Structure to design on (326 residues):
């Protein structure tokens, strides 16, 4: 009997040892984590849509089964609210956000989900545009209007050949005549009217100084230096890229035209009467004088992401946009 009990005890110990070594009952695996990711800055903003995305650099040890961006009008949006679904796995992805409300501030961040849970990238905020604001017909030409923040801008560069009182603006084609001119003048780039039909005319600052380039009614004006600065500050970083048209710029310098401003590189005419940089530069006058010989302008370049403020000789020929308060 004693021998039987000894055998039973040995058997119990043996099976107990085998069960303890079973990996299915071992300690919990703590090597699995949430995904690691970043959010892509928001671009291509319209009144109802925008683009963002993310980059998942680590899946946390478990496959990423869902990814995209989520957004809200309050901070720190989560996937239980508005979201996109943009595939699975790690790497870079792009998200198109739709169904937005015009003139509204939103917050967005990327998300990634694996078996452990959901993690989020950094947060960005953006404001949808107000959309187009109709058209302006002035001196025989029709201009589209876009609302950006609290300002309304003409989408096309000015093409008027007369002032708002009907007086003709002097059209100067010869370089020798343009040189050191101190009175109002305009021209087409390279004296080519086909370029003017798409890029508008070039005006010296003396035409701007008259105060008669914009319509006499409706609140329109040639923008001041402050108007241009207000526009750039509203858009923020990379304002030039966001304002430039999606085509027409040299050397891969096209913009994203996030706000429908559609800035074109109309080039310029210097104070000596020479034309330059069509396709490279888009420079617009402000109505603000810097000093006796110079006035402020705001420029976009094919190789720059910003809107750059410069004081130029008043004899230069630059493009002109019109603005009014909303």
């Amino acid at each position: 009997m004693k021998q039987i009990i000894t055998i039973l005890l040995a058997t119990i110990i043996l099976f107990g040892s085998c069960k303890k070594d079973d990996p299915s009952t071992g300690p919990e695996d703590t090597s699995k984590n949430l995904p690691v990711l970043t959010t892509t800055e928001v671009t291509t903003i319209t009144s109802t849509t925008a683009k963002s995305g993310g980059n998942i650099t680590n899946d946390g040890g478990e496959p990423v089964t869902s990814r995209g961006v989520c957004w809200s009008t309050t901070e720190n949006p989560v996937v239980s609210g508005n979201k996109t679904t943009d595939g699975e796995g790690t790497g870079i992805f792009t998200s198109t956000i739709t169904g937005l409300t015009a003139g509204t501030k939103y917050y967005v961040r990327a998300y990634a989900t694996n078996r452990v849970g959901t993690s989020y990238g950094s947060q960005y905020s953006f404001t949808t545009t107000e959309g187009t604001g109709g058209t302006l017909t002035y001196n025989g030409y029709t201009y589209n209007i876009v609302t950006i923040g609290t300002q309304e801008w003409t989408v096309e560069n000015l093409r008027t050949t007369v002032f708002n009182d009907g007086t003709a603006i002097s059209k100067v084609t010869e370089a020798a005549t343009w040189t050191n001119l101190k009175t109002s003048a305009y021209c087409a780039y390279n004296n080519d009217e086909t370029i003017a039909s798409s890029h508008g005319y070039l005006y010296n600052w003396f035409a701007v100084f008259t105060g008669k380039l914009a319509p006499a009614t409706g609140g329109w004006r040639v923008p001041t230096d402050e108007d241009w600065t207000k526009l750039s500050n509203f858009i923020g970083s990379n304002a030039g890229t966001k304002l430039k048209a999606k085509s027409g710029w040299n050397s891969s310098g096209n913009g994203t035209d996030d706000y429908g401003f559609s800035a074109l590189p109309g080039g310029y005419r210097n104070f000596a009467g020479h034309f330059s940089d069509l396709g490279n530069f888009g420079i617009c006058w402000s109505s603000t004088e810097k000093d006796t010989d110079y006035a402020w302008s705001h420029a976009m370049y094919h190789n720059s992401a910003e809107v750059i403020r410069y004081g130029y000789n008043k004899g230069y020929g630059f493009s002109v946009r019109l603005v009014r308060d909303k």
The chain has six helices and 19 strands. Helices lie at 2-20, 175-178, 193-199, 205-209, 225-235, 239-243. Residues 2-20 form the longest helix (19 residues). Residues 132-325 form one domain.
